[in-house]
Amino acid sequence: MLLLGTAFALFTGLLWGSVGVVFSKGAGKKYDYVGFMVTSQLINVIFGWILIPRYDILLSGKAPQLFQMSAALFLSGIFGAVGMMFMNKGMRMGHHASTWTIGQSALAIPFLAGVVAWRDSVHLWNVLGVAAILAGIALLGKSKEGRTTIATGKKETPWFFIALAALLILGIQQTLTTIPSRWPGWTDAARLRVPLAAAGSLSGYVFFSLLLRRYPDKNTIKYGAVLACVSLPGQLTFFKSLDYFAQASKAAIAYPVAVGTCIISFALYSALVIKEPLNRARVAGMVLGTAGIVFTALK
Questions:
Q1: Which domain holds residue 155?
Q2: How many domains are there within the chain?
Q3: Most buried one in 9, 62, 89, 207, CB count within 10 A?
């Protein structure tokens, strides 16, 4: 089970890295980010609700704690949409790999929430992991680029604070996602986690679409479909890896393996494909962030 969990988590990380590639291209303004996210999440909702749930279990009333789980996952989708809007903003300011790494370091927040709210036990390597993440964020924040927008050249909020907002919001999203797993004896018998999160995410992006008056068009429909092709399978493989790790009593390492693979794969893409400069501080920050994510979740 541990080997299968690791394989699914590694594959999830590659899919999530591919999501980062699509976000990066969207930040290059070849198509509208909000429009293609509305398209992508609409496709995820349609196919997610058709293909994934066990409707026999749902209709029989055997899905445990349905209301509480639905609220947690739907809200996690909304927070995920808001967090990704901030991440896209940071990328638009020219910091692709750094913004992506900082945002993915949000795993530190559900760790801290577990210690404070659920009294999870803390080991030395957990504390070192959080410290490594914070050190990595500080190194990534040393960059002085991106304090003006690419589009207008006007002064704006430094990219680092935009990325930090993404970290905090995505940390809340991840914490909400983990809440049902903390309920004694709970299982996702009706397989509702993925479609519920997708529905929440769609709601968030529809709100931004109406607020900003940015709607899907011919290009966003095409690229949104590409995003759906990697994001929905990525959610499915992640929960599959989580289930396998849980059977081996190693559920804590699912996020670190997947997110670490995501960060490394996207950093390689940024360096090799879009030729984003990687100075020593950025490389050290990415290494520390990745190592910190792994140590944070170790038991």
A1: 2-297
A2: 1
A3: 9
